[in-house]
């Protein structure tokens, strides 16, 4: 079973969920705003893909951060910000058991179906 992590108002998350349903891929949805995010799960993602991939610097939340928060980004700082502001995480995140995928590009779609 694939776990799709995102927020329900995210267009990309909705597209991903519709795609998985159409392909009849077993999945469940974890809403970051409703269900929250625990630090150990975030660390698993950071270990798998790195903070540079996971941190969404194009989000509204990012634009709302102070210049001090945005400056001199490091892995611990990025993790702290993502724990404090889960909407800084690029969406959707897919957990397939042994793999973590971020975003919904064509290569991710193909990997999820196979």
Q: What best-fitting shape do the alpha-carbon axes yield?
A: globular
Put simply, the count of helices is 8
Q: What would the average pLDDT be, to the nearest integer?
A: 95
Give the class-level CATH name: Alpha Beta
What's the N-to-C terminus distance?
13 Å
Q: What is the helical fraction, as a range of percent?
A: 40-55%
Uncertain spans, ≥5 residues at pLDDT below 50?
A: none
H and E string: EHEHHHHHHEEH
Global Rg: 14 Å
Give the biggest beta sheet.
4 strands, mixed
List the topology elements:
Elements (H helix, E strand, L loop, with lengths): L1 E5 L4 H12 L4 E5 H4 L3 H11 L1 H4 L5 H5 L2 H4 L4 H10 L8 E3 L4 E3 L3 H8 L1
Parallel strand pairs: 1-2
Antiparallel strand pairs: 1-3, 3-4
Would you kindly provide a written description of the structure presented here, covering whatever features stand out?
This protein is an alpha+beta fold. The protein has 8 helices and 4 strands; from the N terminus they run βαβααααααββα. Strands 2-1-3-4 form a 4-stranded mixed β-sheet, sandwiched between helices. The two termini are 13 Å apart. The mean pLDDT is 95.
Brief descriptors of the model:
8 helices; 4 strands; 114 residues; alpha+beta
TL;DR of this structure?
With 114 residues, the chain is an alpha+beta fold.
């Amino acid at each position: 079973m694939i776990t799709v992590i995102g927020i329900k108002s995210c267009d990309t998350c909705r597209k991903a969920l519709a795609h998985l349903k159409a392909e009849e891929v077993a999945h469940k949805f974890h809403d970051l705003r409703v269900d929250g995010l625990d630090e150990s799960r975030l660390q698993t993602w950071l270990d798998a893909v790195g903070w540079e991939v996971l941190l969404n610097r194009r989000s509204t939340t990012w634009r709302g951060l102070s210049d001090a928060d945005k400056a001199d980004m490091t892995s611990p700082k990025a993790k702290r910000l993502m724990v404090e502001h889960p909407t800084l995480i690029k969406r959707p995140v897919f957990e397939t058991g042994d793999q973590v995928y971020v975003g919904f590009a064509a290569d991710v779609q193909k990997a999820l179906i196979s």
